[in-house]
Write a structure and sequence with these properties.
Elements: E1 3-4, H1 19-28, E2 33-39, H2 59-72, E3 78-85, H3 92-102, E4 106-109, H4 129-145, H5 166-182, E5 186-189, H6 190-199, H7 207-216, E6 220-223, H8 235-247
Parallel strand pairs: 1-2, 2-3, 3-4, 5-6
Helix pairs in contact: 4-5, 5-7
């Protein structure tokens, strides 16, 4: 089955196109099932407003839009309603309430910040070993909750870290082994692959991380991380991702677990 569960919308403030345009592009590209997983809102304290995600009051409209597309295109493609969420323990009770209230099908862990967004550095800008270990601890705990269908761009730390040193190797092995233990897949992220191809800078997916994955053999999925409908039509990039995983000795899961 051809699938992708990592699709954004304009509500994240850094994506383009209507929700329906993503669906039509996926149909044109021959996808059997897709999922929308825009950046989750959080009930931030002290009036903090994030520039990379929808507001809590926009969540209902987001869910209504995806459910409308589910019904409209039910005979042509399967569409799932999801969110891409950080693992913020203090907000997990709130998230569980939203999942139940809105009938959300799945959530993926895109851990862009540790602890909370206000006052935290972006995990793609980490430069210190202690930051790596905090990230590792959060990802491991997230997998242990059983809430997340998979871990998006698990090697995001290599976007800013100066080099794949012994600390990177240690946390990578810990994350990969926990994935294998819990059965929570790790995502090979095609948006990151596109960035590295276009600007010549290797961020994620980072070869050293995935070579370790090839040795340990965790469950793996591939995500387009679509921020534009045209991402569904980049057949060359999609095949390049599959080829890379084959070279590492990895096969993608046939489907992800729903809530």
């Amino acid at each position: 089955m051809k699938y992708n569960y990592h699709t954004h919308t304009t509500l994240c403030n850094h994506a383009r196109g209507t929700n329906e345009e993503y669906v039509l592009a996926a149909i044109e590209a021959g996808f059997d099932e897709i999922g929308f997983a825009d950046h989750s809102p959080w009930p931030y304290e002290n009036g903090f407003v994030s520039h990379i995600r929808m507001l809590p009051e926009e969540l209902e409209g987001y869910c209504r839009s995806i459910k409308s597309l589910q019904e409209k295109y039910k005979d042509r493609i399967s569409i799932k309603l999801g969110l891409e969420c950080e693992y913020f323990p203090k907000y997990m009770p709130w998230l569980k309430e939203q999942i139940k209230q809105h009938g959300i099908d799945f959530i993926i862990c895109g851990h862009h910040f540790c602890v909370d967004e206000p006052g935290s550095i972006y995990n793609g800008n980490m430069t210190k070993p202690q930051e790596l270990y905090r990230y590792r601890d959060d990802i491991v705990e997230a997998m242990e909750t059983g809430m997340f269908s998979y871990i998006a761009h698990p090697d995001i730390f290599m976007r800013g870290y100066p080099g794949f040193d012994r600390h990177c190797e240690k946390i990578s092995v810990d994350i990969i082994e926990k994935s294998k233990q819990t059965g929570v897949p790790l995502e090979y992220n095609l948006l990151g692959l596109s960035h590295s191809k276009n600007d010549g800078k290797q961020g994620y997916p980072y070869p050293d991380f995935w070579e370790l994955a090839g040795e340990i053999k965790p469950p793996v999925t591939m995500g387009i991380d679509a921020h534009d409908p045209s991402a569904y039509l980049d057949y060359e990039l999609f095949e390049k991702g599959l080829e890379a995983l084959r070279d590492y000795g990895l096969e993608t899961e046939s489907i992800i677990r729903m809530l």
